[in-house]
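Entry 14: structure prediction run for 2',3'-cyclic-nucleotide 3'-phosphodiesteras-like protein. Input pasted below.
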Amino acid sequence: MPGSSLWLLPPPSSPLNSLLTSLIAQTSSHFSSPHLFIPHVTLTSSISPSTYASDPQAWLDSLPLPPSSSVSVTFGELESRDIFVQKLFILVKKDGVKELGKVCRRVVNGYDDKDGLGAEKWAEDEYMSHLSLLYHDCPVLSPPDISTIENLVLKAGVSLEGKGELGGWTGGKVVLVATDKPIEDWAPIAERTL
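Run finished. Output tokens:
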């Protein structure tokens, strides 16, 4: 993936951290994918490393992120797309993360216009908020394959209707990840709690 990315993680105290980490491991194992990653909602990608230069933490701290109370992740159904990093994911209702995604997209070259219309249009037309469970170089998953993982998700107690403590979260932590490196090296280089 070119450049770096901003991700939204569950709050550190959320039980979803361990549950989703386990589900990602189980899903990857089930489909023989070697790729493991931190549970997250991608806010934006393609951030040039020159944007944050030698002090990624100061750069992240300078972003005008909305308050925790205005950011909510609400889970929806499982889907699969023919995109490596979206091979299987939990759809996230866009309304709760769109404003945060828009603010984050403005740091990408070409979306930083003064009136914000580039980022606004991107958030409306292109941003697809989701939480991946599988990165894999395979075809789109079949309905029976999706159903198998849905059973694992539901058995773990995660709500795909966005209900309760395991149906999403409010606030969280925004992290900067150098996603131009190999997946096994994807780790936060800066973080900020909302």
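Notes: The mean pLDDT is 94. Will compare against the previous run tomorrow.
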